[in-house]
Amino acid sequence: MNFYIVDPNKENRDNLRNLIETDYDSIVVGTAGESNRAYSEIIQLHIDILIINYNLDENEAGLELINKLKKVGSRPRFLMICPQLSPQKMQTIYDSSVDLIITSPLNLVEARQMIRLIASYAMLLNRLNQIYEISSSSIAPYTRPQALHREQTEHISQVLRFLGIAAEAGVEDIMKICNIMCDQNIEFSQINFERDLHITEHDKRIIFQRIRRSLKVGISNLANMCLDYPENDILLDYANNLFEYRNIHNEMRKLNGESAMPVQISLQHFFNGLLQESYRVKN
Q1: Response regulatory domain: which residues (predicted)?
Q2: Could you point out which of 141, 170, 213, 233 has its C-alpha 20 to 30 Å from the C-alpha of 3?
């Protein structure tokens, strides 16, 4: 993983570099203390993860630099260092494509854990993208072997049992949708619900509500497991791939009695994650 650090505090930059290059198979390809230099260097480098301070300089905040980078097609994973902010400002940060937040002043133990999580997340996404490219190029929709289809859906059922939601009301709906995605090898956004499930928009809203209630149970169960087994790679994979880790992190804080942002369930992220997970049966 290639990291870049943008922070006006030199001590922060040095501490983060040491954490990254000592504990992980990663390198820091550059650092900067202000936005202009950072922008000119970042657009010329291959960067997987950008660590950026919310407060950069008088002329430009961290979120403004992120937006500039996105406009020119530079889209690494973003980890932001910021002080205690209101829930509204925290939501604005997450809505700007920031994956995780480290509170300042820096706690090196927390920073190490956040860096480990975002590096694992980035590596997982790279691996899943490679699997998807191989799968989508080799198997045409509607012509997938039935044995493979059955293995994929059985693997998805195993994942749902692992999450502790196999008996929830929304699981039947989840499996119907997954059957279509596996059979046609399509993502969630490509499903024609009216044609394939014979439902109206009103019916779809009801189904989605039922699924979300089931997924809230799954998030709570997974967060509890993450608290009990924080170093388990399988739990981390599921947290990232199915729910986006920030939701699991917020639920863990909630379970510990701490203040936390509310969980935001993305059905598209969940179902696409299940589809990617189903490809593992071919490996």
Answers
A1: 2-119
A2: 233
**Arithmetic mean of pLDDT over the chain:** 85
Q: How do residues 21-52 score in pLDDT, each as one tens digit?
A: 886 568 888 999 988 888 888 887 888 899 99
Pair (57, 115) in one structural domain: yes
| pLDDT classification of 120: cutoffs 50, 70, 90 | confident
Q: For residues 36 and 9, give the distance between their C-alpha atoms in angstroms, rounded to a whole number.
A: 16
CATH, residue 78: 3.40.50.2300
pTM of the complete model = 0.50
Contact at 8 Å (CB) between 81 and 114?
no
Residue where the block lists tokens 């929830």:
168
> Residue 124 CA to chain centroid, in angstroms?
9
Query: Is 86 a residue whose pLDDT tops 50?
Result: yes
- pLDDT, residue 283, reads 46
Structural domain count of the chain: 2
Residue type, 198: H
Q: How many CB atoms lie within 10 A of CB 155?
A: 17
